UniProtKB/TrEMBL annotation, chains A, B:
Superkingdom: Bacteria
GO BP terms in the entry: cobalamin biosynthetic process; methylation
GO molecular function terms noted in the UniProt entry: precorrin-3B C17-methyltransferase activity
Gene3D superfamilies in UniProt: Cobalt-precorrin-4 Transmethylase, Domain 1, Methyltransferase, Cobalt-precorrin-4 Transmethylase, Domain 2
Keywords: Cobalamin biosynthesis, Methyltransferase, S-adenosyl-L-methionine, Transferase
Annotated metabolic or biological route of this protein: Cofactor biosynthesis; adenosylcobalamin biosynthesis
One matching Pfam family: TP_methylase
Domain Tetrapyrrole methylase: 5-211
Its EC number(s): 2.1.1.131
Name of the featured protein: Precorrin-3B C(17)-methyltransferase
Lineage: Bacteria, Bacillati, Bacillota, Clostridia, Eubacteriales
PANTHER family (alphabetical): COBALT-FACTOR III C(17)-METHYLTRANSFERASE-RELATED
């Protein structure tokens, strides 16, 4: 199958979260390409492939390499953690693919952390929800602030991605203060999940007030409930109905 | 494996969207239980199971039946389309499971339509997004209106579930007017996907203004872009970065 780039969402990484479609795309591809850490997750299960890995910030180089390799007749799988679309490589790949009209791009969805982490906690996103990244690497902080305020005003459940990193240890605390200032109650039920589906997975249910002073790292996904969310036997459960 | 209820997200229905974990849960279960239409999707692949199906509005009966059956020693899989958590059965099951302390509930995530439909369109949800249901069966319309306004004010990408049904043919048009009144431009790039991953799948990219007068049915998921979303070679692509 020449001239194709599959952009494949791996989910959390462990092969039990792969869909049959993702498994098939990885099998069909001759070359697997992606960020080093994600490639290392699949390498043990596909030992006979060619591998091309790049650093985290080299996304455009990676897309160009994938498209050029596909054009030369080798099927490529560009792998992403989570979903291929959600903060993933499908978007820059499709942008660049405008210059490669002879290459087909096939987007293969995967379990984003909102779903895989949600399942660990219980059912935190059973009603209307937002997914929001706190990383300001590609987005101005003012846009992030405005979205946090809007999510709170709508009383959405929220999944927060990239809640922290070395350069910005206080971003989650800042986000919590914006949510509190825009209508989320301090007692709102929240949850955190670390290392979803990997060794050392841990999770915890806590209040929004407690979240403000809880240290988290870049391997953590944070969940904020709506006004109806409850803690039940240690799980975070949002009702499907919304009673006023 | 007695005394367990797996609540399993099937994704769009076709087995190629099942994760290995979901496949394993369905294999381990002795009884498969769920809404008739979803059970019919998996029946051909698991012919040797016991099946218990109920109508669409009998969710609580189904949960009670699943928990009672698990308590009697038979492993049960309660199946949902899409994800187990997102508008799914994990939430009512975990609520009712408070009365069945001897039964274990295991939530098995699956591809919700925002991800599976997003992959069909390209990468519509590559930046911060909301998932919002237009069904007012369990949620007052005022809450839905308030969330639509908040989603527009935050310039989120949006996936709209349940955009229409027989009893409310005009809900999508009403939703579009709320989005327009709260800051979404008429030219915002949007997409619709019908019968995701099933026979007769169809998709289309159009503007928000055009969406207002486009008829949709209950098998359709609607995507609304943010201010940066573009149409590229017939696909809907939201950039990962957000330029002001």
């Amino acid at each position: 199958m020449p001239n194709v780039v599959f952009v494949v969402g791996l989910g959390p990484g462990d092969p039990r979260f792969l869909t049959a479609q993702a498994q098939s795309a990885l099998t069909q591809a001759e070359v697997l390409c992606g960020y080093t850490v994600y490639l290392d997750l699949v390498r043990p299960y596909f030992p006979d492939k060619l591998y091309y890995s790049t650093g985290m910030t080299k996304e455009i180089d990676r897309c160009r390499w994938a498209l050029e390799t596909a054009r030369s007749g080798r099927a490529v799988a560009l792998v992403c953690s989570g979903d291929a679309g959600v903060y993933g490589m499908a978007s820059p790949l499709l942008e660049l693919a405008e210059h490669f009209p002879d290459v087909t791009v096939e987007v293969v969805p995967g379990l984003t952390a909102a779903l895989s982490g949600g399942a660990v906690l219980g059912a935190p996103l059973a009603h209307d929800f937002c997914v929001l990244s706190l990383s300001d690497r590609l987005t101005p902080w003012e846009v992030i602030e405005r979205r946090l305020a809007a999510a709170a005003m709508g009383d959405f459940c929220i999944a927060l991605y990239n809640p922290s990193s070395k350069g910005r240890p206080d971003y989650l605390a800042r986000a919590v203060r914006i949510l509190l200032a825009n209508g989320k109650a301090p007692g709102t039920v929240c949850g955190i999940v670390r290392n979803i589906g990997r060794e050392g997975q841990e999770s915890r249910v806590l209040t929004l007030a407690a979240l403000e002073t809880t240290p988290v790292d870049m391997f953590t996904t944070v969940f904020v409930g709506n006004a109806q969310t409850r803690q039940l036997s240690g799980r975070m459960v949002t009702p499907r109905g919304y009673r006023a």
